[in-house]
Specification:
two-stranded parallel ribbon, 2 strands, mainly alpha, 6 helices
């Protein structure tokens, strides 16, 4: 098994998947081990998609990233499959939208939307002093 890293916007991934035969897409998506949604609150904003459908697997009203995630979940049975969603500004509506999308999958046992994890700040930042190593 060779490792592959794929990076792209939801539209770029959607267009790429449209260019490939459905069986090949399903096989490729079945091998995904980690899905990273950086700035997921920007990818899953409040409301429905009102634009023109971008690609084959995007249903009406669905944001492009919703279609990509749904397609991966539908084609991937790995027990080790992980989703990492990150944002410095995630609002509750984005977390709820992500939770609704992921709970369609039997592997995600979340009873409520994911909570915000905030790492503790170093004491010198709490006191308003910025350590010199930040400027080197």
């Amino acid at each position: 098994d060779e490792s592959v890293l794929v990076v792209g916007t939801p539209d770029e991934l959607g267009f790429a998947l449209d260019e490939v035969d459905a069986e090949d897409v399903a096989e490729w998506l079945s091998r995904v081990e980690v899905l990273v949604l950086d700035e997921f609150d920007e990818l899953l904003p409040k409301g429905k998609w009102e634009g023109i459908r971008s690609f084959r697997y995007q249903q009406t009203g669905m944001w492009p990233v919703e279609a990509i995630v749904q397609r991966i979940i539908r084609n991937n049975d790995r027990k080790t499959f992980q989703v990492i969603a990150a944002s410095a500004t995630a609002k509750k509506h984005s977390r709820i939208k992500l939770w609704r999308l992921l709970r369609r999958d039997h592997r995600f046992k979340l009873k409520r939307p994911p909570r915000i994890l905030q790492p503790p700040l170093p004491q010198n930042l709490i006191n308003g002093r910025i350590p010199s190593e930040f400027f080197s």
